[in-house]
Automatic annotation (TrEMBL):
The keyword Hydrolase applies. Belongs to the RutC family. It is an enzyme of class 3 (hydrolase). This is RidA family protein. It comes from Pseudodesulfovibrio karagichevae. GO terms for molecular function: hydrolase activity. SUPFAM superfamilies: YjgF-like (SSF55298). The lineage of its organism: Bacteria, Pseudomonadati, Thermodesulfobacteriota, Desulfovibrionia, Desulfovibrionales. Keywords: Hydrolase. NCBIfam families: Rid family detoxifying hydrolase (TIGR00004).
Amino acid sequence: MHQAVNSDKVPAAVGPYSHGSEVGGLIFTSGQLPIDAATGEMPAGAAGQTRQSLENVRRTLEAAGSSLDKVVKTTVYLKNMEDFGAVNEAYASFFREPFPARSCFEVARLPKEALVEIEVIAEK
């Protein structure tokens, strides 16, 4: 049985889902858009959106009693693979070695016309 994870420090879900789920000692976050919960706005550019998405991931993990240090896998969705370098630079400031495993995909479109969306799997 899984337990829903939600935080009032993360923007409300844009659909019928939780910010994350906890099951078997693992936290699975939903894809976190780069929306600032305080303003409802998205930063300009892929680097700023990466930082905001990861801040939302961090807050979701904290609501579940976990942290970025416990992330074992990330998935990054990009609107444009041309932003890969800028995303990597911003992403690297949130993680240290040993880095989590990661997949990165270019997608046709993201909700709210975002440039970046990130989801993770972390240990509790």
